[in-house]
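Technical note accompanying the year-one report. For the benefit of new consortium partners, we illustrate the data format agreed upon in the data management plan: each record pairs a sequence with a structure-token string. No post-processing was applied to the example shown here.
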Amino acid sequence: MSFAELAAQLNAGTILPESIVIATLIVVLMVDLIVGRTSTRWTPYLAVAGLLASVVALFYQWDITNPTSFLGGFNGDALSVVFRGIIALSAAVTILMSISYIEQSGTSLGEFVGILLTATIGGMFLSGANELVMIFISLETLSISSYLLTGYTKRDPRSNEAALKYLLIGASSTAIFLYGISLLYGLSGGETKLSAIAAGLAAGSGQSLALVIALVFAIAGIAFKISAVPFHQWTPDVYEGSPTPVVAFLSVGSKAAGFALAIRLMVTAFPLVSEQWHFIFTALAILSMVLGNVVALTQTSMKRLLAYSSIAQAGFVMLGLIAGTEAGYSSMVFYMLVYLFMNLCGFTCVILFSLRTGTDQISEYSGLYQKDPLLTLGLSLSLLSLGGIPPLAGFFGKLYLFWAGWQAGLYLLVLLGLITSVVSIYYYIRVVKMMVVKEPQEMSDAVKNYPAITWNLSGMRALQVGLVVTLIGTSLAGILSNPLFNLANGSVAKTKMLQSAVITSQVAEVNTQLSALNKD
């Protein structure tokens, strides 16, 4: 094989966005190593610029003619473009909100940014991974970086405890997932590409039980990454103990990568057991929506409340995956796009409040409107959007998910989603009411001692930019949601994998109806 033929098969231009992030990571590490602590004045902004450049590169790959690269190991189709963009944007906003937080913790900001960029690379590669080895390496890159970020504030015992719990549970889930895909490798006759695995499984016979075991183990690994019940045990403790910017990235970037993996792996590698994985994800969605929303009612810590909220949101997003229709997949993409803004806006407000008061207890937010109207507005809009109050972005996201589920015949699941959404509105509005309605004499001690609002401190200007950008995104994504709808629908329409899966599902449904008519 000549070099030109090899280069054509590798098609390395597909991973240009990831290459930009890798180059940014190298530059950040070199500058931090050579210049030292003084480099923290501009290395975070260099990292943000690299991530935004990566998003621009993704924009130009939207209509790429040959998305497959590295001999079929990576697929840069439209679906992966959107999920990679979500991960890169979540990392950029996380860096903006972390500057003041990490500096106040007394740890190195340059190393933090380097590890976060590594996690971003892992998540972006995972979103387009089309081969078992690449899936596992990308997943481990994301996971190990997440463990390091969770325990980054070494002087905080809660952070150390969270990192240890995350590492132990994460290592167990990784081992289970690895065993599942190793079974998949064996059952397919030694194939590692997802499409070749599906062909190998279709050619085999008498392997249904082993295939179901492989499916269950693979879903267990994915469910851990997206914080689905009953694989959610790590989420509340890790969210409460970790540095808050890390939690923000885990709740958006890591979850987006998990859902991208779930779609690609289930649709491409497990078409023979489609009914089984739909059943398992239905059970996960029911448990996540019920437990996430009910347990959130009793929380007193803002970060734990957002942790259970994140579990419940995963249950809502799984509705689109279970529907298995074009509208279902589009609704998943749309909801992750709006979730990016509303969740990061909420976490930015929580970081700002904790920096100024040193607490994240919900009771301490009492009367905040009288001292900090901007923070109150940002947190109120993000929480109301997460609850699905119109005309905010979260309302249209849930409406699209429920509509896609209803069209697919998931009536009970949609009704359960509507009921649990109403439950979630209670605990979101409880926080908003505490901030806005409280009388001056009912103001909490933390708000009474609230420092004078200034943005002149180091890193605070970046936090303000992050707050304003996510607040605008949360507000306008609902009112001007049409471009996001078009983006979500286009990402599914331009992805051959999903189109073929939808057609196969429709053909199977028609055949079922015809066989039922013949019996009658």
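Partners are asked to follow this layout when depositing records. The radius of gyration is 23 Å.
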